[in-house]
Amino acid sequence: MTAPGLSIAVIGSGPSGLYAVDGLLRKLPGVRVDVIDRLPTPYGLVRGGVAPDHQGTKAIVRQFGRTMGKEGVRFLGNVEVGRDVSVDELKGLYDAVVVALGAYEDRRLGIPGEDLPGVHGSWSFVGWYNGHPDFAGLNPDLSRPGAVVIGNGNVALDVCRILAKTGGELALSDIAPAALAAIQAGAQGDIFLAGRRGPVEAAFTPAELGELGHLSRARPVVDAVVLPEGVGDVDGREKPFKEKNLELLRGFAAGDGDQPRRIHMLFWAAPVAILGTDRVEGVRFERTRLEGGRAVGTGETFDVAAGLVVSAIGYRTAPLDGLPMDGGVVANADGRVAPGVYAVGWAKRGPSGTIPTNRADSLAVVDLMVADLEGAGGKPGGAALDALLAERGARVVSFADWEKIDAAEVAAATDPCPRVKFATVAEMLAATD
Ligand code: NAP
Question: What are phi and psi of 189, to 5 degrees?
Fold first, then answer.
């Protein structure tokens, strides 16, 4: 099917949105796609979520940049759906709307004390060290000893690793300069990484877990007693990963060294309260055991002192007027939200998988769209959105503008640092003049 006259809006310029754009261009030649993002910078989670020392993962932006530069695609940055234009307006203007918002709200622990100063969700904490403009002012206090990172997924590993690395180890990263300075001066000698289930149930992937064993001023500490003989009865596809994790943890348990920072891996520890009066002073954990795959409390508790707590327990898609929600995702059936409205990525399936997971997922939704959009077309599309945004005084950032921001960030860096990100939206906009 060719699709001249067909116009599609994609809300969000992260991996799931851009894989969808790529699929739409292939399957619907002639289609016009407008990619809308509330930030002046594209690439969503790749820029703001992927750890700053994982530059290899971030290199995917080159491929996404090629997609953005293709005929028929426009970037409309600094345009917030819900503020500058509504979902309902987009539905009226475009033949289809693809919701690729990601999941950018921290799940809550739901325990007493979680709002105390010094407790941060991983979205904001990661955003802070990754130079996300929403969190430039977070300024977490790292001057007190002890940190607890709650969660046994890759984000929790990222946070521990970044807290533990030296300036030298972070030289090849694009960590926010203010965060680098605060982390280097920080007092987090003992970092506790806490999982509410056991070593086999942890959601770590081996490559990321293995990185903890190669830090110059920190080492992981594991009590061999908690490590089982084998991984037991796990899904066949997951077995090799679980076995590799167990092997790595055995290596950590056998290791020694006098590195000044230690990452204590606590398993079977569910947080039940954040302790402190004016600010966080520690975390109370309850020991757990497994029952039907779930962690259940044993009634035995213990406390860990900490001046910093980061909960890395997953994310939710923030509700947006005009979109039905189902828990932490946009309500959808295989990506179909409503006639002409589709969801992809974390907004569709929740926060799981790696960046390439989104490719197959977005392409499957594109296939549904191609079938649904047979005979569609004729909505006013981008020109009408431009008129609406101009009327509302929106300051739209084009892809060419983003390229100026990009060039200025790269120019501000000294080798081997790949870029120095602008801390605020105002600075980004100034770079486009
Ligand atoms: P995740 O992999 O889902 O891990 C979340 C962790 O939080 C789990 O250990 C979970 O334990 C725990 N948790 C949830 N609720 C909790 C509670 N109330 N109390 C204590 N613990 C709780 O999520 P993520 O780390 O945010 O990562 C999101 C996705 O991004 C994952 O697919 C991840 O692999 C991916 N990612 C990949 C990379 C990479 O490839 N380098 C880096 C970062 C993220 P239970 O298992 O017991 O629920």
Answer: -60, -45
Backbone dihedral angles phi then psi of residue 304, each to the nearest 5 degrees:
-125, 125
Is the CB of residue 352 below 6 angstroms from any atom belonging to ligand 1? Answer: yes
Contact 280, 118 (CB under 8 A): yes
Q: How many C-beta atoms surround the C-beta of residue 166 within 10 A?
A: 14
Ligand 1 pocket check: which of 155, 290, 294 to mutate, most ligand atoms within 8 Å of Cβ? Answer: 155
Q: Are 5 and 378 in contact (CB under 8 A)?
A: yes
Walking along the chain (433 residues) 10 residues at a time, the average pLDDT comes out as: 81 98 97 98 97 97 97 98 98 98 95 98 98 96 97 98 96 96 93 98 97 96 96 91 98 92 97 98 98 96 98 96 96 98 98 94 98 92 97 98 98 96 97 95
If you search the block for the tokens 């105002």, which residue do you land on? 426
- Phi, psi (5° rounding) for residue 99? -95, 110
Instruction: Report how far ligand 1's centroid is from the alpha carbon of 201 (Å).
Output: 11
Strand partners, 275: 282
List the one residue out of 36, 61, 63 whose CA is nearest residue 49: 61
Residue minimizing CA distance to atom 9 of ligand 1: 152
The pair of three-digit structure tokens given for residue 53, joined into one six-digit string: 């020392």
User: Taking the CA of residue 417 as centre, how many other CA atoms within 13 Å lie in the half-sphere pointing to its CB?
Assistant: 18
Place of tokens 């055991």: 289
Residue type, 424: T
CA of 154 to the centre of ligand 1 (A): 6
| Ligand 1 centroid to residue 317 C-alpha, Å | 15
Q: How far is the CA of 352 from the centre of ligand 1 (A)?
A: 8
Pocket mutation for ligand 1, best pick of 242, 313, 315, 357 (most atoms within 8 Å of C-beta): 313
The pair of structure tokens assigned to 197 is 């289930």
The ligand 1 atom nearest the CA atom of 315:
26
User: For the whole model, what pTM was predicted?
Assistant: 0.97
58 lines ligand 1 (CB under 6 A): no
The tokens for 51 are: 């750890």
The CA R_g of the chain, rounded to the nearest whole Å, is 23
Ligand 1 site, residue 197, Cβ cutoff 6 A: yes
Q: Measuring CA to CA, which residue among 21, 18, 59, 25 is closest to residue 42?
A: 18
Does residue 244 contact residue 203 with C-beta atoms inside 8 Å? no
DSSP, res 108: P
Distance 251 CA to ligand 1 centre (A): 23
